[in-house]
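Objective 1b. Sequence-to-structure analysis of LysR substrate-binding domain-containing protein.
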Amino acid sequence: MEARDLFEEIRPLFGILRSFSTRAQNMRLGQIGRLRVISTPPLGYSLGVRALRSFHAARPDVSVSYDVRRLENVVDTVQTGLADIGLVLNEEKLETVNSELLTRSQMVVLMPTNDPLAAETSITPKMLAGRSVIGIDQASQLGRLVSRGFVQGGGSYRPSIEVRYCQTAAALVAEGMGVTVVDPYSAEPYLCRGLVTRPFSPACEVRALILTRKGVPHSGLLLNFVEELRRQLPIGTPKPHHPPGY
């Protein structure tokens, strides 16, 4: 009798334990929990958004924090553990965080579809001579990359307007203020607005990287989001080998 009474008292605990067990399993599988993502603007307004849309549609119970900041802010936020994953375009070595290559791409020239240069298969600096070129601040990595490309291509880099962000340059091109050399991610949102891209020559490579905190295991949510990022890469984009478990 006493045993039966005791069982009736503790029976609710079995349901709670089953609930905890199910929740723990779902967390391991990356179906519930919280994911904190931070990105620089080029990836944060293009690839990251597409990946987040698919990721969250398949996991509606997951809470997501999604922020877009400058490169140094992204690195600091990942390093201090305030974000689980960072997305950046970066050519320099990062000592304070783990970095994993997501994909490589090339800088492009963004211009109106009716621009005469749109008939070309690639655009050189000399072809842009005399044109209104919207440039990227040379204090930034991408700005320096474009400047070196102009020098290597035998041209003179003298932008008529200089901006800090590639997205700003793309927006000005959309308003008919000239052409620009930007990363393909920043150009992507404007390709449905009467603009086209052509490869910039000489080729200027940009690397999209995934940043994570050193010494911290990757959660199921993080691994699932990384997989979604890779799925959202355009067909034919090189997908570099990555270690098992990442």
